[in-house]
Amino acid sequence: MAIAQLLSRTKELERYQSQSVARSPSVVIANDNVTNPPTDAELDTAFGDAATLPNGFVGLLDDNGAGSVVWFCAIVNDRWWYEQLTVAV
Fold it and tell me: With pLDDT > 90 as the criterion, what percentage of the chain qualifies?
């Protein structure tokens, strides 16, 4: 294979890798048993202390792993924010 072809294929692979990373963001999913609503301490246990995680961290909390109550959790300015999600019908 000629050098020009190898360079072209390398660029294609780099483009593919950057596109696939952009299409499949990773979200942490925890299955801890929490109260309704979850406390700051429970969220720290499930994901880690809000002060040590990056601003903009996002996670899903599946209460007790049952799939019946799910919380959307995010960190903004070292504080937890959450919203209970509703299952689609």
Answer: 69
pLDDT score of 62 more than 80: yes
Q: For residue 44, is it within any domain?
A: yes
Whole-angstrom CA distances from 9 to 3, 18, 19 are: 10, 14, 15
Domain that holds residue 70: 25-89
Task: Specify the number of domains making up the chain.
Answer: 1
Cα-flanking dihedrals φ and ψ of residue 45, to 5°?
-65, -40
Q: What is the 3-state secondary structure (H, E, C) of 8-66?
A: HHHHHHHHHHHHHHHHCCCCEEECCCCCCCCCHHHHHHHHCCCCCCCCCCEEEEEHHHC
DSSP state of 77: T
Query: 17 lies in a domain?
Result: no
Output the pLDDT for position 6: 75
